[in-house]
Specification:
This protein has 2 helices and 3 strands, in the order βαβαβ. The protein is of the alpha/beta class.
């Protein structure tokens, strides 16, 4: 019996990139949530939204939900997210 061993590494090197600048304060900022649409996400994001608005003086929280929990966010969501100061993604089961 032959045994085949697969190498899961990539052959191309990782691309260089710069990290986004850190936000110094959340006050007055727009925060967006991108949910995978599973039930457990709603309670977590609701609690987080309350904290962001009351404790950190966030100006606005925007909710987006992907149409497929196991796929990347749709182009339209990514385009809208460019107007946000901060994006938080989450999943829940």
């Amino acid at each position: 019996m032959a045994l085949t061993v697969l190498n899961p590494t990539t052959e191309s090197p990782a691309r260089d990139f710069e990290l986004a600048p850190r936000i110094q304060s959340l006050a007055g900022k727009t925060v967006g949530f991108i949910s995978n649409g599973k039930e457990g996400t709603k309670g977590f994001f609701t609690h987080l939204e309350n904290l962001l608005l009351s404790k950190y003086q966030v100006a606005e929280v925007i909710w987006e939900t992907k149409s497929n929990y196991s796929a990347p966010a749709e182009t339209e969501i990514i385009e809208r997210a460019q107007a946000w100061d901060l994006a938080i993604t989450g999943l829940g089961d």
